[in-house]
Write a structure and sequence with these properties.
The complex is a heterodimer. Chain A has strands at residues 3-7, 10-12, 18-25, 33-39, 45-51, 58-60, 68-73, 78-83, 92-99, 107-110, 114-118. Chain A is an all-beta fold. In chain A, strand 4 (33-39) and strand 5 (45-51) form a beta hairpin. Chain B contains no helices and 9 strands. In chain B, strands 1, 3, 4, 7, 8 and 9 form a 6-stranded mixed β-sheet that branches. Chain B has a 3-stranded antiparallel β-sheet with strand order 2-6-5, with no helix packed on it. Classes of the chains: A mainly beta, B mainly beta. The interface between A and B is medium-sized, with 22 and 28 residues.
Chain lengths: 120, 108
């Protein structure tokens, strides 16, 4: 059974940093692109970033470029999102999602999400 | 950047057919995926590559895509189908994944 479990969310002040983790199991993690998708309170879904199987390609939504870094550790079956210079508008539930093909493919499995709140 | 437009809400009586649209410039040339999200839960993939259904998704869910509009169709709607639905594509010009704004399906 495919499982994605996020952790690392919490309350952080504007300008602060946070590192999210996603533990994957039930599939060959190193064979799939992976993504982070977020959802602000009461709002829709927004893709944040994705990363190729070997970490050699990474893409970001414009609003987080230069502030967020996606990474992975295939030996640990884990995906990460380092978030720096956080802003109030980054407040959201952050989901880890398996990104089948990295381009035209769907997000076929999702974690339950971890809440990030940016507030003073 | 590529924009996907969905109606904010759709209402339908139980047993009837609901159609949720997703508009985009020449969206018919792209692969469209649809997600269902119930309150407090993570999204679930219900249609991928325009019209394919993942295992476990009822046959009542179907999809089509042509021209500037993709459509998610839910036949014989049930109370349990009440949820937010999102369409999604990959924008090859930016290498970005894009979601529509979402449609709240209300079962009357």
């Amino acid at each position: 059974e495919v499982q994605l479990v996020e952790s690392g969310g919490g309350l952080v002040q504007p300008g602060g940093s946070l590192r999210l983790s996603c533990a994957a199991s039930g599939f060959t993690f190193s064979s799939y692109w992976m993504s982070w998708v977020r959802q602000a309170p009461g709002k829709g879904l927004e893709w944040v970033a994705n990363i190729k199987q070997d970490g050699s390609e990474k893409y970001y939504v414009d609003s987080v470029k230069g502030r967020f870094t996606i990474s992975r550790d295939n030996a640990k079956n884990s995906l990460y999102l380092q978030m720096n210079s956080l802003r109030a508008e980054d407040t959201a539930v952050y989901y880890c999602a398996r990104d089948g093909h990295g381009d035209y493919g769907p997000f076929d499995y999702w974690g339950q999400g971890t809440l990030v709140t940016v507030s003073s | 950047s590529y924009v996907l437009t969905q109606p904010p809400s759709v209402s339908v009586a139980p047993g009837k057919t609901a159609r949720i649209t997703c508009g985009g410039n020449n969206i018919g040339s792209k692969s469209v995926h649809w997600y269902q999200q119930k309150p407090g839960q993570a999204p679930v993939l219900v249609i991928y590559y325009d019209s394919d259904r993942p295992s476990g998704i009822p046959e009542r869910f179907s999809g089509s895509n042509s021209g500037n509009t993709a459509t998610l169709t839910i036949s014989r709607v049930e109370a349990g189908d009440e949820a937010d639905y999102y369409c999604q594509v990959w924008d090859s010009s930016s290498d970005h994944k894009v979601f529509g704004g979402g449609t709240k399906l209300t079962v009357l």
